[in-house]
TrEMBL record:
<dbReference type="GO" id="GO:0017000">
    <property type="term" value="P:antibiotic biosynthetic process"/>
</dbReference>
<dbReference type="GO" id="GO:0072330">
    <property type="term" value="P:monocarboxylic acid biosynthetic process"/>
</dbReference>
<dbReference type="Pfam" id="PF12697">
    <property type="entry name" value="Abhydrolase_6"/>
</dbReference>
<feature type="domain" description="AB hydrolase-1">
    <location>
        <begin position="7"/>
        <end position="238"/>
    </location>
</feature>
<dbReference type="InterPro" id="IPR029058">
    <property type="entry name" value="AB_hydrolase_fold"/>
</dbReference>
<dbReference type="InterPro" id="IPR000073">
    <property type="entry name" value="AB_hydrolase_1"/>
</dbReference>
<dbReference type="InterPro" id="IPR052897">
    <property type="entry name" value="Sec-Metab_Biosynth_Hydrolase"/>
</dbReference>
<protein>
    <submittedName>
        <fullName>Alpha/beta-hydrolase</fullName>
    </submittedName>
</protein>
Length: 250
């Protein structure tokens, strides 16, 4: 393991970062430091009109690690990649080294997540329409998943599904319409984890983002026979993939 590496976990919409706990335990057993981001847009006291609160919160946690001289691997799940890309701007290892600073973001790990170009939002990048399983409130401020058991956890056992669904919370819908202004994957070495059974972001869409949206940029790929939630159904495989992204020979 490269010295002084922190793995920072950013969950997707509706999710607590506690969903990564089994993976975190595996990484900490391998002597990694870890950090979890609780997105402000998940179960907020009042809903946000854009993703700026998420961006700010992620950036603060990255800054804490890099200012302590840590190299940071940012693991993003689903929606979590959008505010994370914004948050990484200027905190990558190359930029910080040019300023004579220690620490920085060394790798971006997409766990069946979104690769979105500048100027696009999550919604606009995929045609401008809500997905069929979105349940959006009449005021267009809150969104839930209508069928999370089928969309997120279709390869999990019954107990995992029950606990996972119970842990979901309301999400601020307008964050899905925030346009991206910075694509960190153009500046930071990246890995994309293809999830073969993903019903939220089908494999064809995952491959399109890597092979078309990110064409010309060096994005490594890993593959796991899992749903949208490999942290539940394939935690050991996800842990190993993250360790490889961090530079471990595993």
């Amino acid at each position: 393991m490269p010295a002084s590496t922190t793995v920072l976990f950013v969950p997707g919409a509706w999710h607590s970062p506690d969903c990564f706990d089994t993976v975190i335990q595996g990484l900490e057993a391998a002597n990694y430091s870890t950090c979890k981001v609780h997105l402000p847009s998940v179960n907020p006291p009042s809903h946000y009109l854009d993703f700026s609160a998420d961006v700010s919160h992620i950036r603060t946690q990255i800054e804490t690690a890099v200012d302590a001289g840590q190299n940071v691997v940012v693991v993003v799940h689903s929606y979590g990649s959008l505010p994370s890309n914004e948050a990484i701007k200027g905190l990558d290892i190359k930029t910080r080294q040019e300023k004579g600073l220690r620490g920085g973001v060394t790798h971006l790990f997409f766990c069946c997540s979104f690769i979105i170009p500048e100027g696009q939002s999550l919604i606009s990048a995929f045609g401008g329409n809500d997905l069929p399983w979105f349940m959006v409130s009449d005021d267009r401020l809150e969104v839930h998943s209508a069928t999370p058991d089928q969309i997120f956890y279709n390869d999990c056992d019954d107990e995992q599904v029950k606990n996972a669904v119970a842990a979901l919370a309301a999400h601020s819908y307008q964050t899905f319409h925030s346009p991206c202004t910075y694509a960190a994957w153009k500046h930071v070495p990246s890995t994309y984890l293809y999830c073969l059974k993903d019903a939220a972001i089908p494999l064809a869409v995952q491959m399109m983002m890597v092979e078309e949206t990110a064409k010309g940029f060096d994005i490594n790929t890993e593959t796991v026979d899992a749903s949208h939630s490999p942290f539940y159904s394939k935690p050991d495989e996800l842990t190993v993939a993250i360790r490889r992204a961090a530079g471990d020979d595993v």
